[in-house]
Amino acid sequence: MARSASKRIRSSDTEVSDDDDGHLEGILSQSEDEEGDFDESDGEPELDDGSSHDLPKDPDDDDDDDDDENEDWPYKIVTDANGGVRYEYEEIDPVYDSDDSDAQGPVNTIGNIPLSFYDSYPHIGYDINGKKIMRPATGEALDALLDSIELPKGWTGLTDPETGKPLNLSQDELELLRKLQMNEVPEEGYDPYPEMVPYFTSIEEKMPLSAAPEPKRRFVPSRHEAKRVAQLVRAIKEGKILPYKPAEGTDSVEEQAETYYDIWANEEPQDRGVMHIPAPKLAPPGYDLSYNPPPEYLPTREEKQAWEDQDPESREKEYLPQKYDALRRVPGYDEFVKERFERCLDLYLAPRVRKNRLNIDPNSLLPKLPRPEELKPFPSLCQTIFRGHEGRVRTVAFSPDGEWIASGGDDGTVRVWALNGHEEWSTKLSSEEPVQIVRWRPVKDTFILAAAAGEDLFFACPPLASDAIEKASRDVLDAGFGYAAGGAQQKSATVKKEGPAKWARPGSKLENAGVLLKATVRSVIKTVAWHRRGDFLCTVSPTGQRSSVAIHTLSKHLSQIPFRRLPGLAQTAHFHPSRPLFFVATQRMIRCYDLQRQELVKVVQPGARWISSFDIHPGGDNLIVGSYDRRLLWHDMDLSSRPYKTMRFHVEAIRAVKYHRSLPLFADASDDGSLQIFHGKVVSDLMENATVVPVKMLKAHRVVNKLGVMDVDWHPKHPWCISAGADGTCRLWA
């Protein structure tokens, strides 16, 4: 018995040790555990009895041994509610190599049950051990405010529906969110761009998989197919096979029952009468009727609201353009029936009348003009550019011999240039006022230049001519001082009246530069024009009112105002090239006066809103007028006071117009930066009208502050012209 008991003890010890080493793998149910306990309890008396004969022990020692063994076991023995034995096992902490997931399992193990079922209970579920999960205490509004102010790390402001506690994020979750927000790779060590391994192309195969030659059957027609085709052809010819046999039995019963009648079957065709007028065709649809119209055809919100507010009779269109992504999305047109009904009303209610139209070729109504190539020579290329002025160049003029060019601008200087673009002489007339106009004395035996700056009219003799011509020019300018001194001694008037102009020396500085004479008028001078003999010249001051027009005598240093009262503001004035006539232009009209009889001869009415300049043809019977409303007008004074031809070739105001003195050419200068060259032929036959042909458009100057070409002048002999621009340059066109 002792040996058997010891064997039992050893076997039970080995069993317990094996179970302990295996962490109680394969533990049976609770009932099996209880039976095992009973077996062990039954074996203990045998052990005590057997050992009592050989090994007497204290009972307390046995209890201590049992407690030591129970401490190593992974469970605790507790008493349940019924007084029975119950085993509570410790929670398993799985190692990394186990099958358990690293993710934390749900704390609340109630499953897929709504938490609203626990609203009437103090708990919200059970954990894995079956214990109640109590509902967390909720603070008041002040506690919620303090919690929102002092935000803990990982705070989300959400509540976990399983536990009722605030849902906070861990450090790993926050790091994952940061990487997602910064478009970074969430996983550490992940390479989004690994090196490509060419599995299939890394080894170059030099030999083909199969080098067998192509069989002959791939190049020879098939005999079997030829026989089959011959059989089909024979069957079709014999009628055994119908290749185009209609399908039978496809029509439905309803379609077979319907019967259609042709109401026009017995109608006889009738010839339409001679007066038959076919109905007008509908206009083809435009871009606004497209299902995908261009953006500029789509109405804005304001246009759509205005269209909806209008009465249907007042609307220009019966529809609003709409845009669709595809044609299949286009709905039905709700106005289709209405439009067809109105079309039918128009066809049978509106009478159609046949009108006879005159088939006239429009080209036959136009005058036959020569081609511009046949009217050469005329300027077409920029030959020389003159640079040196600061600011705008307001005026430019050719000398009588055509060898020198004078210019004046906003910098208050007058410059004389050679035709090659080199500046030969310059002087500064005023530091405050710009030089408005420069004009040469039209006599070849002198070399005198008149320039106006502000209220002063300067006469200069540039040291560029020969000694004889320079001496003659100085004598002409100095002759008036002797006449003025002699005339003053003979006058015995008691009351001194202020004259229209004061003649004096300009000063030693200007005299050393070549400016010998100065005449000061009452207001700012805008234009200067010489008489053909060179002894008289006129000045126009638009702001001078009564003294706006003045005529000066150079040989006597005398000035006079020819008009007591002039209707309108004077703009410019010119002498007739061959007759004693004087032309004065106001804003809307040009008046012609006879200087000998001192009376008004003719009034020219161009019809322009504001005249800017005009010029008289060398023949004396025609003149051209330029206006600020972009029109160029040709007047034949023998024909009518109205313009013979009106030309609109510019988009901005016309500043200056000029005739050539020996060739049938004239030009105009505009603020759009261009020059328009015309061929103007005038014949002595009164039955033939003048021929005006535009021959060339010259892109002359750059537009600066809405100002382009300021002045233009012609060479006295050659078909050359010079232009002055607001860009600070002068250009010679040849």
TrEMBL record:
Keywords: Nucleus, Repeat, Ribosome biogenesis, rRNA processing, WD repeat
Region (Disordered): 1-85, 291-318
Ranges where the BOP1 N-terminal domain occurs: 118-379
Compositional bias ranges of the Basic and acidic residues kind: 299-318
One Gene Ontology MF term: ribonucleoprotein complex binding
Keyword Transmembrane helix: no
Transmembrane segments: none
Principal localisation: nucleus
Highest taxon in the source lineage: Eukaryota
Single GO cellular component term: nucleoplasm
Keyword Nucleus: yes
Coiled coil: none
Cell location: Nucleus, Nucleolus; Nucleus, Nucleoplasm
GO biological process, any: maturation of LSU-rRNA from tricistronic rRNA transcript (SSU-rRNA, 5.8S rRNA, LSU-rRNA)
Extent of the WD repeats: 386-427, 709-734
InterPro entries per record: BOP1/Erb1, BOP1_N_dom, WD40/YVTN_repeat-like_dom_sf, WD40_repeat_dom_sf, WD40_rpt
Segments of skewed composition (Acidic residues): 31-49, 59-72
Quaternary organization: Component of the NOP7 complex, composed of ERB1, NOP7 and YTM1. Within the NOP7 complex ERB1 appears to interact directly with NOP7 and YTM1. The NOP7 complex also associates with the 66S pre-ribosome.
Family: Belongs to the WD repeat BOP1/ERB1 family.
Record function comment: Component of the NOP7 complex, which is required for maturation of the 25S and 5.8S ribosomal RNAs and formation of the 60S ribosome.
Record-given protein name: Ribosome biogenesis protein ERB1
Organism encoding this protein: Beauveria bassiana
